[in-house]
Amino acid sequence: MYVILGGRGAVGAEVCAALKARGDTFVAPSSRDADVRDADALTKACQGAQVIINCVGLPYQAKVWRRDWPRVADATLTAAERTGARLVFLDNIYMYGPAPLEVPITEAHPQKPSSRKGRARKITAARHLKAHEDGRAQVTIARSADFYGPGGEHSLLWASFLERMLEHKRPQLLMTAAARHTFSYTPDIARAILALADDPQAAGRVWHLPVGPAWTPEEWAALFNRLLGTDLKPSYLPAAFSRLLGLVVPLIAEAHEMRYQFDSDYLFSDAEFRARYPDFETISYEDGAAQLVAWAKARAR
């Protein structure tokens, strides 16, 4: 049996959908049923699990991340240790640094994060790997690039591009026009997580999950314009402006801290994953964006 934590989120819901399609047994306890910061509650919710998959997301605030990600790590690791289940942790790449990052970004990239959120993620990942080294639990870290896809309301390609374009507004971006970026599609992330979850020999290390090619924001705008039948040109907020705006808009301040990811090429390497799973196929950006547009239009009805 699989236990999916964060099963109502963008990636967690896709993991549940993939397991249902396979006919596998799983449960996805709600936050009311199992507080992911509470080891006892998680242990109870994970009884009988062979694999625990942690796809939990936290509010996009540095102070929350610094307080709660280590607590989430400790609780889920304890639950895995007590139940004997393997643990797969869905991670992000904020711990890499300093900026600008080396290209391509591999699993061996230096971890000297320049952001508060990055430091919180570094601590969290380190606790997972230390627990594996100490023999407490079998732990695999599935590290994803920025994602997009149905349900991904907190993703850049939704919030900065498609959501605005559906309202006939220009994309408004905290980035530079020439910087190239790689993205992952949420159903692809889910299938990749399950590939790792079903592979005990993958435990004990970090795996970069599959991405598409490196695209500029201009390429994304052109694709969404084709799909929507619009002609909306992106606008780019200069770094000085986003810094000032962040003084009065907290969410902009949180985004500005991570702006370095979009002001220079930010290319994620999935070479090691693809070498281990050579038959793994990912959707094209064109098809993934079309599905995202279809989801958004259905949602608006």
Which radius of gyration do the C-alpha atoms yield?
19 Å
The CATH topology of one domain is given as Rossmann fold
**End-to-end gap:** 36 Å
CATH class of one domain: Alpha Beta
Low-confidence stretches: none
Q: What's the number of helices? A: 11
Determine the mean pLDDT.
Answer: 95
Described by strand count, sense and barrel closure, the largest sheet is: 6 strands, parallel
CATH superfamily of one domain: NAD(P)-binding Rossmann-like Domain
> Structural class from helices and strands?
alpha/beta
CATH architecture of one domain: 3-Layer(aba) Sandwich
Count of individual beta strands: 10
Helix proportion: 40-55%
Order of helices and strands: EHEHEHEHEEHEEHEHEHHHH
Strand content: 5-15%
Across the major sheet, the strand order is: 2-1-3-4-5-9
Shape: globular
Short description:
The protein has 301 residues and is of the alpha/beta class.
Please tell me about this protein's structure.
With 301 residues, the protein is an alpha/beta fold. It is built from 11 helices and 10 strands. Helix content is 44%, strand content 11%. The strands form 3 sheets. Strands 2-1-3-4-5-9 form a 6-stranded parallel β-sheet, sandwiched between helices. Strands 6-8 form a two-stranded parallel ribbon. Strands 7-10 form a two-stranded parallel sheet. Helix 3 (62-83) links the parallel strand 3 (51-54) and strand 4. Helix 5 packs parallel to helix 7 and helix 7 (217-228) crosses helix 11 (285-300). The protein is globular, with a radius of gyration of 19 Å.
